[in-house]
Design brief:
9 strands; four-stranded antiparallel beta sheet; 339 residues; alpha+beta
């Protein structure tokens, strides 16, 4: 009888503790965020010595925050995408290339040989991610930094990172801040994944009537998965960086201007007036995100679509008419890299 009473008491205490905490680790409610920063500042004009080369750098952060705003998990990556032209301003880059992010490149990124600490980019970013765990976004923002050189103006200057991170971190922190600002509540979180898909397929050659333009479409997804690997929550966005050139091969855009994502543009993306269902891109993307919750990645990949790539199922025909193929690919990538 005493053993039975002890067991009942122990179970009662466990229930009380769980009621305070709110849930078990596999069932906890958290906030999921996605943020990005895109720059075309390193795009190059054509010169007598070298042809033009456009470049779009998109840094992406996926973050999970607890109820106190502390970072439970974070994933950072950068797509450094270049579009090369010849002397006639024809695109020489392979438009169908599978473009890899810095993390996907791993040791092939080639920073190791130039690093004063002998560490590759993916190793340094992993150290930075680990340092962020348990901190608030404000604490990360207040990190002490130093200028190493003109190209590295915000290098961590804290004892825990001086031997592991010598890359400049301002874009990572800016993207983290955006991710926290747009974070949404997610239930049953277990793991976090970040997936990035890059395409330069819409880049254009110069012709007799038009000038050249590089276009880098970077689609990214922050996905929270439950204990069974099903989608607990997802946020998807696209950074569409267009880099126009003039007839002389000079960049014809403000290289210092911010490149906003489709979700950041909201109504200024101007899809609503062209949409057959009268919905803007961000509204359609959010409807698609909601549809994915509770589904496995394999179910999402098997979604029936039309020839144009938009969903062809009753649940989505009135809410999503955009092409979702790159969105699905980004979610699939996020599952591949979940942690």
């Amino acid at each position: 009888m005493k053993k039975t009473l002890s067991l009942v008491l122990a179970l009662s205490m466990l229930v009380a503790v769980l009621s305070v905490v709110g849930c078990t680790p596999a069932q906890r409610t958290v906030k999921l965020g996605l943020g990005s920063v895109t720059s075309i500042a390193k795009s190059k004009d054509a010169t007598a010595e070298a042809p033009a080369e456009a470049q779009a750098n998109t840094t992406v952060v996926a973050v999970v925050l607890d109820k106190d705003g502390k970072i439970l998990d974070v994933s950072i990556d950068t797509a450094q995408t270049k579009v090369a032209f010849d002397a006639d301003m024809k695109v020489t880059s392979d438009k169908e290339e599978d473009i890899k992010t810095k993390k996907e490149l791993g040791f092939d990124y080639g920073m190791n040989a130039r690093s004063e600490i002998g560490k590759e980019w993916h190793e340094q970013i992993a150290a930075l991610e680990d340092w962020m765990i348990g901190k608030t976004v404000e604490e990360v923002k207040n990190m002490k930094v130093k200028e190493r050189d003109a190209s590295h103006t915000h290098v961590p200057d804290v004892p825990e990172l001086t031997s592991s991170v010598t890359i400049t971190v301002q874009d990572y922190i800016a993207a983290l801040e955006k991710a926290a600002a747009n974070a949404v509540e997610v239930k049953n979180y277990k793991t976090l994944g970040l997936g990035i898909i890059v395409s330069i397929a819409k880049s254009q050659d110069a012709t007799e009537t038009t000038t050249a333009q590089a276009q880098v479409d970077t689609t990214f997804a922050a996905t929270a998965f439950d204990k069974d690997g099903n989608v607990a929550g997802a946020i998807i966005d696209v950074a569409q960086a267009r880099i126009p050139y003039d007839a002389e091969g000079k960049v014809a855009a403000d290289k210092s201007a911010a490149v906003l994502t489709k979700k950041e543009l909201k109504e200024d993306y101007f899809m609503k007036e062209r949409s057959e269902i009268g919905k803007e891109w961000y509204e359609q993307a959010e409807a698609f995100e909601d549809w994915m919750i509770g589904k496995s990645v394999s179910d999402i990949v098997m979604l029936k679509v039309t020839e144009k790539g938009n969903p062809d199922i009753p649940e989505l025909t009135s809410s999503v008419t955009i092409s979702v193929q790159s969105l699905i690919a980004a979610v699939q990538e996020s599952y591949k890299y979940k942690k």
